[in-house]
């Protein structure tokens, strides 16, 4: 063997399809969630017969395939029929009725949204969506600030199925009785993957994402073991990607245990807390930064009002920075600029 046979050249990559490591990537098959997919499909199936569908509330902890299963069913439906309009909205990003409706307008190709009120947008969309049947997937629905939009969908759309996805199972029980009664939703709980299922999923994704035979078994197993421990597939996908990146940085033709160890070390620093582990005040500041990324500390403090003194506000900013939830950019002679960080929960 030559001295340079194990060196990766500039025009070579260990990755075959890096997109396969995106959490929202929908593979051709989704193992271990077949029963859940069939249940979702059964709720939607009446639409294919010209009837209204059933509404469904899906819940379970993050990183266990809720969104993936729903998107798989969505794709299958789109391939099966063009008579059912499919809509998917991420309510983490679109957390008000107005934002949700604007998103749907974009998806259905309605462009005349300027200066229209929420009720006017709902009226327009009702006319468009009622021309066919429709399925609306509202992901992270427990982040929506008001549930009026759900009631409007129930009232104004004729043949539809609402698929509501949430981490918090109590969200549904806390809905206004008027909304809950009108929704009349089935419930579907997703439980965490067990060790065997977690290993199967990560090995499958690694097969899709990387050139064959680039993983040392010890390295891959270390990623699998850590993911089993954390019970979050997103963590494993992140670690697979970072291990590959570290191996490429070292121009290695193999992803070795030292590359996996480096990724694991970075992961420990990357995310010390989940956003849900912060208190109410920290979460409120984080939500403010999320919608006002790029503003200065002073500008953000002005926006939040008199709820916090500047000193307290600055201390909470430091806490969020320490936990890698935000990025603080120092600008010489000016107040620091605060950017919202892409966290693992967004991955």
Describe the structure.
The chain has three domains: 34-189, Rossmann fold, CATH 3.40.50; 193-270, Helicase, Ruva Protein, domain 3 (Orthogonal Bundle); 275-346, Arc Repressor Mutant, subunit A. The strands form two sheets. A five-stranded parallel β-sheet has the order 2-3-4-1-5, sandwiched between helices. Strands 6-8-7 form a three-stranded antiparallel β-sheet. Helix 1 (34-44) packs across helix 2 (66-80) and helix 9 (217-230) packs parallel to helix 11. The chain has helices at residues 34-44, 66-80, 97-108, 118-129, 148-156, 170-173, 177-183, 195-209, 217-230, 233-249, 257-270, 280-291, 297-304, 310-322; strands spanning 56-59, 84-90, 133-139, 160-166, 186-189, 295-296, 326-329, 337-340. It has 14 helices and eight strands. With 347 residues, it is α/β, with parallel strands linked by helices. The longest helix is centred in the last third of the chain and has 17 residues, at 233-249. The protein is globular.
């Amino acid at each position: 063997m030559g001295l340079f046979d194990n060196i990766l050249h500039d025009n070579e990559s260990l990755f075959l399809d890096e997109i396969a490591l995106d959490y929202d990537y929908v593979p051709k098959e989704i193992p271990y969630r077949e029963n859940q997919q069939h249940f979702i499909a059964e709720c939607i199936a009446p639409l294919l017969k010209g009837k209204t569908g059933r509404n469904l509330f899906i819940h379970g902890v993050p990183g266990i395939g809720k969104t993936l299963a729903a998107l798989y069913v969505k794709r299958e439906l789109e391939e099966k029929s063009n008579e059912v309009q499919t809509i998917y909205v991420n309510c983490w990003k679109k957390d008000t009725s107005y934002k949700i409706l604007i998103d749907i307008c974009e998806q259905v190709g309605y462009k005349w949204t300027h200066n229209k009120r929420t009720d006017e947008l709902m009226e327009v969309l009702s006319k468009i969506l009622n021309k066919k049947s429709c399925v609306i997937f509202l992901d992270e629905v427990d982040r929506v600030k008001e549930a009026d939009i759900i009631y409007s969908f129930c009232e104004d759309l004729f043949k539809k199925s609402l698929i509501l996805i949430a981490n918090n199972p109590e969200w549904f029980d806390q809905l206004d009785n008027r909304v809950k009664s009108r929704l009349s939703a089935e419930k579907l709980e997703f439980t965490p993957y067990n060790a065997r299922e977690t290993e199967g999923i990560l090995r499958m994704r690694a097969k899709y994402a990387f050139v064959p035979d680039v993983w040392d078994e010890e390295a891959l197993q270390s990623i699998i073991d850590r993911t089993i421990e954390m019970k979050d597939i997103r963590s494993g996908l992140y670690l697979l990607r970072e291990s590959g990146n570290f191996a490429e940085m070292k121009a290695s033709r193999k992803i070795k245990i030292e590359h996996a160890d480096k990724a694991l070390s970075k992961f420990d620093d990357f995310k010390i807390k989940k956003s849900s582990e912060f208190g109410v005040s920290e979460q409120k500041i984080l939500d403010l930064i999320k919608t006002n990324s790029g503003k200065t500390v002073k500008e953000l403090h002005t926006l939040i009002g008199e709820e916090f003194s500047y000193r307290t506000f600055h201390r909470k900013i430091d806490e969020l920075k320490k936990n890698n939830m935000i990025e603080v950019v120092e600008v010489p002679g000016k107040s620091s600029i605060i950017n919202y960080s892409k966290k693992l929960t967004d991955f």
